[in-house]
Amino acid sequence: MTKAAQDFTPREIVAELDRYIVGQGDAKRAVAVAMRNRYRRERLPENVRKEVAPKNILMIGPTGVGKTEIARRLATLAGAPFIKVEATKYTEVGYVGRDVESMVRDLAEAAVRMVSDERRAEVREAAEQGAVERIVDILHPETRVPQAQQANPFAASLGSIFGNAFANQPQQAATQTATRTLPDEEAVRVRASAKADVERGFFDVRVIEIEVEEAQQLPIGLIGGGEPGGMGGDMSEMLGGLLPKKRVQKKVTVAEARRIFVQHEADKLIDMEAVKREALRRAGEHGIIFIDEIDKVAGREGSRGPDVSREGVQRDILPIVEGSTVQTKHGPLSTDHVLFIAAGAFHVSKPSDLIPELQGRFPVRVELDSLTAADFEIILTQPENALIGQYKALLGADGVDLDVTADAIAEIAQIAMRVNEQTENIGARRLHTVLERVLDEIAFRAPEEGGKIVIDAAYVSARLESIAGNSDLSSYIL
User: Fold this and answer.
1) Checking CA distances to 255, which of 42, 46, 181, 232 falls within 20 to 30 Å?
2) CB-based burial of residue 304 (10 Å sphere; 0-12 exposed, 13-18 middle, 19+ buried)?
């Protein structure tokens, strides 16, 4: 998308979300204002900017109505680091399970991946050129420019620290050179011709032998492990730059070698420390954490039994939402300006069952509506990722021209609505189940038959009426 995120007005943000999500205008307005407020905050003086906290949002509504999709599309539109977590996978401190700080570490990881991918895209062309040069060096070593390689200067000192783990590593600088055996003009001509052949894929299937570097692993038991992403398990990564690299010979095709070399060349061109700094800044200023199933950790009035950790999870989430600094393996990340969007169905519990302090940290509350048959018809046909379009494309790969008539779409929507009313209301996800049942036979026969297939209301009824009309049967099948 060419338009910058800060250039979108709330009305334009809602219009963008309308391309993918049907209905739920109140929720779209709430997230649009939250996104625009971030741009407004950046324009404030420094002394005022740090005092403006994000207005976190609590979405209330049944499953399958678009809560997660709204948050995900908003993050994509804003170009912001985004993660979705389930409140039920966290436990109170002292219980076995993940601690709530891990959601912040996950956000840092997402931000590092995002910024790293952006930097890789920026250096892609230079990395491609470097990869082609390395392949030509292997195909025509007689044209190679002399180069020297130095052994890792830390090998000796680390060997003395860690014992025999690195006994086989080179302890002294070694020099490897390749001398041109062709005249300079001839070497330049041969290299230019070979580069052109590699770039156009002429050598893609040829097998060559390449040398790749693999990081050494620390001896088992030297450093204790920890939760993935935590500090305890990251000492090996911190020392990774000091450990000597292990060189391994592999036989691969030129196409695969080119992919590997592009990765290596990009790594050389990217300043990972700068990437981490930008990622932490972006996560802290623009990150979005979507906490789903928040109602499952809400206390129920008069509850008994082994659910004592639920309120503890809320108490542990509270300082993260209020604003705190969490240590990640990339550095400290402050959550003061991270936008939190919590969501839940609240069928049994209600938002007031959350502890008061946590309720106060979600000042914006929006209720999402259950989807109607008319909404289902729109979901099937109008959004950019419309389900009917997806199935047409899938079957088109087997040469089937699928035509779903308007009355068939209306019938599918009505049946999905009826099943939702008679059994559990799972929203738009019901459409996937219904469509799979309708198209099951066609998808099975498609590779052999091909051609044009028309699905009308009569066909839909024949496939589904006996199931949808029996609530006991539909609860198992649809």
Assistant:
1) 181
2) exposed
pLDDT tens-digit series, residues 10-38: 898 898 888 888 888 888 988 888 888 88
- 33 contacts: CB under 8 Å, gap ≥ 6: 10, 55
Q: 445 and 393 in contact (C-beta within 8 Å)? A: no
What's the pLDDT at 5?
66
Query: Which residues is 84 bridged to in the sheet?
Result: 290
Given CA atoms 264, 265, 266, 270 in this order, what sign does their dihedral have?
positive
- Encode 251-274: b = buried (16+ Cβ within 10 Å), e = exposed: eeebeebbeebbeebbeeebeeee
- Please provide the DSSP assignment of 58-109 as one string: EEE--TTSSHHHHHHHHHHHHT--EEEEEGGGB--TTSSSB-TTHHHHHHHH
Q: What DSSP state is assigned to residue 405?
A: -
Q: For residue 265, give both structure tokens.
A: 């060349």
Amino acid at 209: E
Q: Residue 51 to residues 46, 114, 243, 253, 323: CA-CA distances in angstroms?
A: 9, 27, 44, 57, 12
What is the phi-psi region of residue 201: left when phi exceeds 0, alpha when psi lies from -120 to 50, beta otherwise? left
Domains of the chain, earliest start first: 5-118+277-367 (3.40.50.300), 124-269 (no CATH), 373-470 (1.10.8.60)
* 235 pLDDT tier (thresholds 50, 70, 90): low
What span, in angstroms and rounded, lies between the C-alpha atoms of 42 and 111?
Answer: 19
How many angstroms separate the most distant Cα atoms in the chain?
A: 89
Cα–Cα distance measured from residue 373 to residue 371, given in angstroms and rounded to the nearest whole number? 7
Q: Residue 44's closest CA among 337, 283, 362, 340?
A: 337
Count of helix runs (H) and strand runs (E) in the chain: 19, 11
Q: What are phi and psi of 278, to 5 degrees?
A: -65, -40
> DSSP label at 215?
P
Following CA atoms 319, 323, 327, 331 in sequence, which dihedral angle do they give, to the nearest 10 degrees? 170
